[in-house]
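User: Please fill in residues for this 214-position structure.
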């Protein structure tokens, strides 16, 4: 997962994710595709200090950046592949993943691994982008439309892999033996210091280690 648009798109939903997680009162959390730790920081700020948080990402450089941010001592960082998690069965009460599942090459394998490491009665709480056609005012959608027109390419080919069909998501989770599946559409405004910054971040991405990249 690249750092593009973290400030604009990641933080608003990270707050919601952390609030939902807090309501479940888990003792241990596994975060998958944690990136540079946007959600991790919200979880650490929101949940009780005794909650054990294991934050993972496939990219070690991402984890190295995340470790430079001040978080509570209950956060443990580890490199891990979502499709081959290095944890024992029944290890976690809750798994969270924000804007990562759509990038996994084998989503069904990732769901099977999530189900394996969850304790009985545990929950997998993950967030996906909806169809960009349903979000015409999103900064990334606007940028893709403009750039797609300049390049004479389908704007959707410039954006994240499509994974938003409810029937497909339910079927994939069902194959991994998940039950009680709930899908909810939530809309939050993007956040940026200025319209110019939003445009620059959407097209080029933020400079390394800039506030927008964390």
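Assistant: Residues filled in for all 214 positions:
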């Amino acid at each position: 997962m690249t750092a593009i648009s973290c400030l604009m798109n990641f933080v608003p939903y990270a707050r919601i994710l952390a609030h939902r997680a807090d309501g479940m009162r888990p003792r241990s959390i596994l975060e998958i595709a944690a990136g540079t730790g946007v959600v991790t920081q919200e979880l650490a700020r929101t949940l009780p200090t005794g909650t054990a948080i294991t934050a993972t990402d496939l990219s070690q450089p991402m984890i190295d950046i995340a470790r430079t941010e001040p978080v509570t001592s209950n956060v443990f960082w580890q490199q891990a592949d979502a499709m081959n998690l290095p944890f024992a069965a029944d290890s976690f009460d809750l798994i969270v993943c924000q804007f990562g599942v759509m990038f996994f090459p084998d989503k069904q394998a990732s769901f099977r691994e999530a189900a394996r490491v969850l304790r009985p009665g545990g929950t997998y709480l993950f967030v996906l982008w909806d169809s960009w056609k349903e979000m015409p005012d999103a900064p990334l959608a606007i940028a893709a439309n403009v750039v797609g027109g300049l390049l004479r390419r389908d704007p959707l080919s410039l954006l994240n892999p499509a994974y938003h069909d409810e029937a497909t998501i339910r079927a994939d989770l069902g194959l991994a033996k998940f039950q009680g599946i709930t899908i909810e559409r939530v809309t939050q405004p993007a956040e940026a210091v200025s319209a110019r910054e939003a445009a620059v971040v959407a097209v080029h991405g933020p400079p390394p280690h800039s506030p927008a990249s964390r």
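For context: The chain is about 35% helix and 15% strand.
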